[in-house]
């Protein structure tokens, strides 16, 4: 139940900052005995009002702390991840449905905003976005996610092992694709180009395409192309024949030294002439 899950986050969670906001956003949509809900990255960004990268880091921290877990084997209709709040399972807020004086069985557990006491039995407290039960509760508050992604679906790059979200047109900006370098990608780069600084090249890759706003069908494939080009350029620079390039500062110093040597030669000549 979402109110119980939210109460647990407010009173018992150790999460702080963006991680706490992300946990509250998921708890607000939680339902069922396992306190689980579908949540997409775009929805969490909108609800927490944080940067996409901050939300990704916050989710990783929550997973590491055990306050959030991924429900394996199930995804939403648009590829949303289903999360659960394991530590909130069984928690009941003070004055919640399982505490306080007994209630008549023909009354709802939660009263409507108008305070009506009669009517057909109602489900436990529902969120304004729709029901918490049904085939997929990803429908609640996920309409924006679906609109922005245009009905996303998930595929996997066999060379890099990274999931890649695609839209009907097959192209996404770098940030919307949630690009991250995986262990598989790192091992491939280390085995193929052992002398290349993979972390540096990856940062250059991300900075370039984030500023450029380019869309691609597969960002892991584009990253591989970048690594190959960087390795090729590095190889060409080291193998190009010719004299080494002298830095400007060294050329200045050499000029100064030449002037000093000529002055000393003239001084010695003058001294020899005077001695004669």
Quick overview:
The protein has about 280 residues and is mainly alpha-helical. α1 (about 1-10) runs antiparallel to α2, α2 packs across α3 (about 40-50) and α2 crosses α4. β4 and β5 form a beta hairpin.
Structure, explained:
- This protein is mainly α.
- It has 2 domains: 2-100 and 126-147, Orthogonal Bundle (Arc Repressor Mutant, subunit A), CATH 1.10.10.10; 156-238, no CATH class.
- Helix content is 45%, strand content 10%.
- The chain is built from 9 helices and 7 strands, in the order ααβααββαβββααβαα.
- The protein has helices at residues 2-12, 17-27, 41-48, 52-65, 143-149, 183-192, 198-212, 219-239, 248-275, and strands at 36-39, 69-75, 81-84, 153-156, 163-166, 172-173, 215-216.
- The strands form 3 sheets. A 3-stranded antiparallel β-sheet has the order 1-3-2. Strands 4-5 form a two-stranded antiparallel ribbon. Strands 6-7 form a two-stranded antiparallel sheet.
- Strand 4 (153-156) and strand 5 form a beta hairpin.
- Helix 7 (198-212) packs across helix 8 (219-239).
- The radius of gyration is 32 Å and the shape is elongated.
- The model is unreliable at 105-109, 115-119, 130-155 and 157-166 (pLDDT under 50).
């Amino acid at each position: 139940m979402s109110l119980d899950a939210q109460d647990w986050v407010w009173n018992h969670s150790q999460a702080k900052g963006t991680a706490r906001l992300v946990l509250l956003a998921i708890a607000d949509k939680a339902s069922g005995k396992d306190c689980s809900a579908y949540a997409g990255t775009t929805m969490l960004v909108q609800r927490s009002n944080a940067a996409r990268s901050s939300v990704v880091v916050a989710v990783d921290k929550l997973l590491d702390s055990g306050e959030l877990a991924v429900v394996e084997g199930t995804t939403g209709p648009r590829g949303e991840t289903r999360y659960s709040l394991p530590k909130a399972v069984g928690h009941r807020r003070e004055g919640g449905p399982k505490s306080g004086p007994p209630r008549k069985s023909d009354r709802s557990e939660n009263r409507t905003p108008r305070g009506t006491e009669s009517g057909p039995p109602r489900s436990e407290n529902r969120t304004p976005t729709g029901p918490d039960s049904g085939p997929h509760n990803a429908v609640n508050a996920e309409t924006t996610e679906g609109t922005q992604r245009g009905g996303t679906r998930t595929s996997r790059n066999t060379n890099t092992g990274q999931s890649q979200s695609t839209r009907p047109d097959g192209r996404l900006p770098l940030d919307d694709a949630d690009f991250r370098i995986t262990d598989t990608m790192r091992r491939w780069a280390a085995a193929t180009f052992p002398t290349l600084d993979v972390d540096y090249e990856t940062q250059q890759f991300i900075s370039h395409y984030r500023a450029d706003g380019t869309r691609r069908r597969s960002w892991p494939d584009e990253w591989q192309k970048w690594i190959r080009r960087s390795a090729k350029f590095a190889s060409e620079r080291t193998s190009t024949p010719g004299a080494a390039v002298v830095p400007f500062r060294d050329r200045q110093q050499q000029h100064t030294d030449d002037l000093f040597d000529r002055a000393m030669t003239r001084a010695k000549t003058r001294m020899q002439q005077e001695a004669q």
